[in-house]
């Protein structure tokens, strides 16, 4: 597999002020492959702020061809919710009726079939009173998780955003893990793996192939089949592990990326400005219906009367379409069917209300 260098391809350089939007199908053309599968690996371009060590805190969807397998690896932080205990019929008698510790992502890395980094982030979930957290420790191992690295000031990404990104990245493609039992149960707010076309586990693919071990470690497989050392001195890196996992998988399931790259054209466009799209709250006499969008909301805005009842008749492309504005439901509102969510208070929440990163965010 190619070795990463600090050189970036001309396509990325030309798109310095552009953002990736989508892939369009195209007639197979070697020129497409030259752009989409360059000889020199594309290196991360959005490092963490402050003292963070994450190398790609904005997803790079242009590094993943449609349907291309990706590899994901994580390190975790353990947490315990007050009152949650193991059942009395637990297989391990020592755990019965004892506090149940669970885990969630703390460091996530996703790579493509070339070993290019699509995502490399630390994850910060909100503080909940009473919930205890512990950074996992193991003798002779360093999982790279510290409270400092889980600080937003050092580039840690909010849990809801990290899970949303992972859901989008893993959707409609094969996903490869190693010893993925913990990975599959780590996400707290969504189920990103459900969107994958298939989840492969290299620990299962290589069972009994090294020293007759049923569940061989990644470092052991990498040493034998890839002839290199990972996790040196006990230091774990999800990026290093994800790259090795994918290389092992490709030995079992070859993937011709050059052939696939010929069939697609990347679409780039200038970054869009995202406005809050505010709304005007009125005392309207429609009992909470959504009425014609007013100037206070701007383009795509709308006026919202108090309450959570059914939405009014849509008008001029900016009002709500005919239907119910349920507290948790979504409405197609405004030109281009932009989706606005309605929360439990009956207030509209626009997904792009907060300014999004200016790099590769249109996907």
What is the percentage of strand-forming residues?
15-25%
CATH superfamily of the largest domain: Ribonuclease H-like superfamily/Ribonuclease H
CATH topology of the largest domain: Nucleotidyltransferase, domain 5
Count structural domains. Answer: 2
Low-pLDDT regions:
1-10, 278-363
SSE pattern, N- to C-terminal:
HEHEEEEEHEHEHHHHEEEEEEE
Class of the largest domain, according to the CATH hierarchy? Answer: Alpha Beta
Overall radius of gyration: 24 Å
Span between N and C termini? 28 Å
Secondary structure class reads alpha/beta
> Into which percent range does the helicity of residues fall?
10-25%
Tally of separate helices: 8
Region (Disordered): 272-363
Biased composition (Polar residues): 339-352
Keywords: Exonuclease, Hydrolase, Nuclease
GO molecular function: exonuclease activity; nucleic acid binding
Task: Give me a quick take on this structure.
With 363 residues, the protein is of the alpha/beta class. The protein contains 8 helices and 15 strands. The strands form 4 sheets. Strands 2, 3, 4, 5, 6, 7 and 8 form a 7-stranded mixed β-sheet that branches. A 3-stranded mixed β-sheet has the order 10-12-11, with no helix packed on it. It has a 3-stranded antiparallel β-sheet with strand order 13-14-15, with no helix packed on it.
